[in-house]
Automatic annotation (TrEMBL):
<dbReference type="InterPro" id="IPR036691">
    <property type="entry name" value="Endo/exonu/phosph_ase_sf"/>
</dbReference>
<keyword id="KW-0677">Repeat</keyword>
<feature type="domain" description="Endonuclease/exonuclease/phosphatase">
    <location>
        <begin position="13"/>
        <end position="258"/>
    </location>
</feature>
<protein>
    <recommendedName>
        <fullName>Endonuclease/exonuclease/phosphatase domain-containing protein</fullName>
    </recommendedName>
</protein>
<keyword id="KW-0732">Signal</keyword>
<feature type="repeat" description="NHL">
    <location>
        <begin position="473"/>
        <end position="503"/>
    </location>
</feature>
<dbReference type="GO" id="GO:0005576">
    <property type="term" value="C:extracellular region"/>
</dbReference>
<dbReference type="InterPro" id="IPR001258">
    <property type="entry name" value="NHL_repeat"/>
</dbReference>
<dbReference type="Pfam" id="PF01436">
    <property type="entry name" value="NHL"/>
</dbReference>
<dbReference type="Pfam" id="PF03372">
    <property type="entry name" value="Exo_endo_phos"/>
</dbReference>
<feature type="repeat" description="NHL">
    <location>
        <begin position="514"/>
        <end position="556"/>
    </location>
</feature>
<dbReference type="GO" id="GO:0003824">
    <property type="term" value="F:catalytic activity"/>
</dbReference>
<keyword id="KW-0325">Glycoprotein</keyword>
<feature type="repeat" description="NHL">
    <location>
        <begin position="286"/>
        <end position="317"/>
    </location>
</feature>
<dbReference type="InterPro" id="IPR011042">
    <property type="entry name" value="6-blade_b-propeller_TolB-like"/>
</dbReference>
<dbReference type="InterPro" id="IPR005135">
    <property type="entry name" value="Endo/exonuclease/phosphatase"/>
</dbReference>
């Protein structure tokens, strides 16, 4: 199974470890607990819902898992008597904010109360935690339904949904795990997922479920696996990357009479509109077909507002922008721009450099002052701008299919990429657009009509395909008219895959990219994204061109494999 994990991904496990009883003979706890511990350690879940553990098993678990803390109580007395439905959480990742337990009965606050037609007392324990990596607050609820009472199982589902709404509200992310003693075609299961906030991770995993469907094992590997009765549910705040039932065994026996279920989630990316989004007009709270973008150290946003023929500055604390260049209608006079395409900042000269596309020029504005400007390059079809650590300017020309480096006083610039006529060979480009340069002076180019991202090392005679390059298309191996390109501190390459309405991420050597911001073209998705930029915390800003807005996405990490 191909699978993913990562710094902000959330690994969740549910595991009925079977209570400790001598009646199990060779499968009693003392003979199998080391295998239970090893299975958990091998998978390192961030959150672990345990069912059936007795107090002595809880002690064993906590001793064996020193990197975890736990919350749970015995179901019989709310202290140490009876089985726990406990939750373990990684101490290095989460701070515990609140915790509690309620009983699955008509009187959920009465300790030890038995519900409806249940054979024995049942509980649900919960924690509220803060993720130290993202500062996200979330809840985890964990339970074990009755094995005999059919009505008790149904009523338990309804009770838990009501309790979650009361305790966690409706806007905070929730994980719900447990052994429901109910199959997916049962009413208790359907109650949880029908017209509620919860989805079964099994059903919505990006990668199809791995392992057997059933989770009730009876210990013996040679026996047929029983029904699927162990579940991980989550609210829409999470995207499920993968889901699997783990079949680790020793000498022909599973460590418990259930096999654990493991799901990996990531927090859904809900962007913040930080500029525009108020229609396609020229008021100061509006944008019209924006293209390029630059973020300064104060997180102010500088936008090439193309169809408004202006550069506009947007402070994050304000809901309107400030014109810093152009804005006097389309034209070629000193105070005018014509379809501004890109903008960068030259720290050495304290100036902005702007691609004034239709006027076929690159202009420098000093001191953020429209009255002091300089045309530094004329007669150029500029698709993108970037500047290196030495202050040298790089400019792509989409008609000459090349990128040149310009030093102070240059009349022509030095060819650094392409320039061998239009084509798709490694020494050629085809209508290059946005460009980016890293600290090693490697140049990254959106090779627009070749539908690929190119990396051109310093002084190289040809480039390396680092994204796409497999024709125009929407598979993970392809791009469709790429625009913005940017590289983070890990060397991960982000590409605004304009024609596919998405942002892709590629690592060095990847055969396929990863969709980090989804497609669909309009509404809350992207519609022809163009420019990309990071702020100083590596939050990602996307120019959502045809939606006339700038979207901010919180910092994201590349995912790594962790399933066997």
């Amino acid at each position: 199974m191909i699978s993913k994990g990562g710094a902000t991904a959330l690994r969740v496990m549910t595991y009925n470890i079977r209570y400790d009883t001598t009646a199990d003979g060779q499968n009693q706890w003392s003979n199998r607990k080391a295998n239970v511990f090893q299975l958990i350690k091998d998978r390192t879940p961030d959150l672990l819902g345990i069912q059936e553990a007795l107090a002595r098993q809880m002690t064993d678990l906590q001793t064996a898992l020193p990197n975890y803390r736990h919350y749970g109580v015995g179901r019989d007395d709310g202290n140490t008597r009876g089985e726990y439905s406990a939750i373990f959480y990684r101490a290095d990742r989460f701070d515990l904010l609140k915790s509690g337990t309620f009983w699955l009965s008509p009187t959920p606050t009465i300790v030890g109360s038995k519900g409806w037609d249940a054979a024995i007392t049942r509980i649900c324990s919960w924690i509220q935690i803060r993720d130290k990596r993202t500062q996200q607050v979330l809840y985890h609820f964990n339970t074990h339904y009755d094995h005999k009472g059919e009505n008790a199982r149904l009523q338990s589902s309804q009770l838990i949904l009501n309790q979650i709404k009361t305790i966690a509200g409706t806007t905070t992310p929730v994980i719900f795990t447990g052994d429901l003693n109910a199959t997916p075609n049962s009413d208790p299961y359907r109650t949880i997922i029908t017209n509620t906030a919860f989805k079964d991770s099994y059903s919505i995993s990006e990668i199809p479920h791995c392992g057997p469907n059933g989770t009730f094992s009876t210990f013996d590997v040679s026996n047929k696996m029983g029904d699927r009765i162990d579940y991980i549910f989550s609210t829409s705040h999470f995207k499920v990357l993968q889901h699997g039932a783990l079949t680790d065994s020793n000498d022909g026996f599973y460590p418990s009479d259930h096999i654990p279920v493991l799901a990996e989630n990531k927090y859904q990316q809900f962007p913040i509109t930080v500029a525009g989004g108020n229609g396609d007009r020229n008021e100061l709270n509006q944008l019209s077909y924006p293209r390029g973008i630059f973020i300064d150290d104060d997180k102010s946003i500088y936008i090439a507002d193309s169809n408004n023929h202006r550069i506009i500055k947007w402070k994050l604390t304000l809901n309107i922008g400030q014109i810093i260049a152009g804005g006097n209608g389309k034209g070629n006079q000193n105070s005018e721009l014509s379809n501004a395409r890109d903008i960068i900042f030259d720290k050495e000269n304290n100036s902005f450099i702007i691609s004034d596309m239709v006027n076929k020029r690159v202009i420098r504005y000093f001191d953020r002052n429209q009255t002091k400007q300089q045309i530094i390059i004329s007669n150029i079809d500029c698709g993108g701008l970037t500047i290196d650590k030495s202050g040298f300017l790089y400019v792509s020309d989409f008609e000459k299919h090349e990128v040149r480096r310009w030093k102070q006083g240059d009349k022509k610039g030095e060819l650094v990429a392409g320039g061998n006529s239009k084509g798709n060979q490694l020494n050629q480009l085809s209508s290059p657009r946005n460009i980016f340069i890293d600290d090693d002076c490697s140049l990254y180019i959106s090779d627009y009509e070749n539908h690929r991202g190119m990396k051109w090392k310093k002084d190289a005679k040809e480039g390396i395909v680092v994204a796409g390059g497999n024709g125009q298309g929407n598979s993970l191996k392809q791009l469709n008219c790429p625009h913005g390109v940017i590289v983070d501190h890990l060397g991960q390459i982000y590409v605004a895959d304009c024609g596919n309405h998405r942002v892709m991420r590629w690592c060095d050597g990847d055969k396929e990219g990863e969709i980090v911001i989804s497609e669909n073209g309009q509404g809350n998705q992207l519609n022809f994204p163009s420019g990309l930029s990071f702020d100083n915390e590596e939050n990602l800003y996307v120019v959502d061109r045809a939606n006339d807005r700038i979207q901010k996405y919180k910092k994201r990490f590349k995912l790594k494999n962790f399933f066997d």
